[in-house]
């Protein structure tokens, strides 16, 4: 069988503009690799792709730069990024104080899985600083957890104030920046210690890959990398390539999607069929509540032809869902009310279609379902 020469010589005059997909599980060992394995746990050299892979590193470097961070690492999914980060930090303690308004599967991790493993989790209202203060003060706290923009209510947490409370208590602040994205905010600059991402969403931007990222200072990223190695949630090179490619148009996509989201929110505010509109002023997510509750929301969604009825967000195509029966299906009626997910709420992730066509589509769906 013909294999490429062992020396790097066969690529020396090849200088690709785009990172190659290193679809290789393993790499030739040499003295430099052995030295890194023995001295440093094999964290710096490329010798096995669960530890590190050049294509995966290329995607991580772009995300670190977007977040203004020293380092980043990629994971197999956003949930792998979140779970691996929390389990790493919980080796130094046992209590999490989290916003109540978080992504549905993050909520399951916090209220079901972490307590089953013996950890304490306290939940507070994301936007209520006094609740954060008393919960963090109530017992020794290891992790303070929030999303920059809560899902699906799009409420803002005062990240700087909560980070300060966390640090006073000796806790680390972890922020999920998937919804707001580094286009609108860099949580590390506001005091967060670690940022986690579902790179499945706006970062990659084409609804064609599942991926996650963890962003922090180098030492913290290395600690979490050790658990990506032992827990196994590494990203595949092919998926990393798609993330890297999507990132090349991140700013342009966000600029366009944000302009559309603003225009949609403005127009919906004037529509008599709409009870309330939630748009935080920037970003590409809009949530609004229609008259007539969940049945009406479902009817409106079914009439749309430009927007696609699908969960997830952050793609070039506008995606719409009703949280009660998709991302937050596991919540009871009381829990939905406590999380302020109103009956009749629709969540829009604006894509890059023609804004007028999208808005006209929503308006016709509202008009043709009104009694
Ligand atoms: C989608 C999402 C996740 C989970 O990411 P996956 O890539 O699907 O594992 C976590 N947090 C938020 C805010 C999300 O939207």
Describe the structure.
There is one protein chain. The protein is an alpha/beta fold and 371 residues long. The chain has two domains: 24-248, Type I PLP-dependent aspartate aminotransferase-like (Major domain) (Aspartate Aminotransferase, domain 2, 3-Layer(aba) Sandwich), CATH 3.40.640; 250-369, Aspartate Aminotransferase, domain 1 (Alpha-Beta Complex), CATH 3.90.1150. Helices cover 40% and strands 15% of the residues. It has 13 helices and twelve strands. It has helices at residues 31-40, 54-66, 78-89, 104-116, 129-138, 159-168, 181-184, 218-231, 237-247, 250-269, 293-303, 333-338, 355-368, and strands at 71-75, 95-99, 120-124, 143-147, 172-176, 194-198, 212-216, 274-278, 285-290, 308-309, 319-321, 345-349. It has a seven-stranded mixed β-sheet, with helices on both faces. The chain has a five-stranded mixed β-sheet with strand order 8-9-12-11-10. A hairpin with a 6-residue loop joins strand 8 and strand 9. The longest helix has 20 residues, at 250-269. The termini are far apart. The structure holds pyridoxal-5'-phosphate. Pyridoxal-5'-phosphate is lined by residues 77-79, 103, 106, 147, 151, 176, 178-179, 198, 200-201, 210, 212. This is homocysteine desulfhydrase. Its EC number is 4.4.1.2.
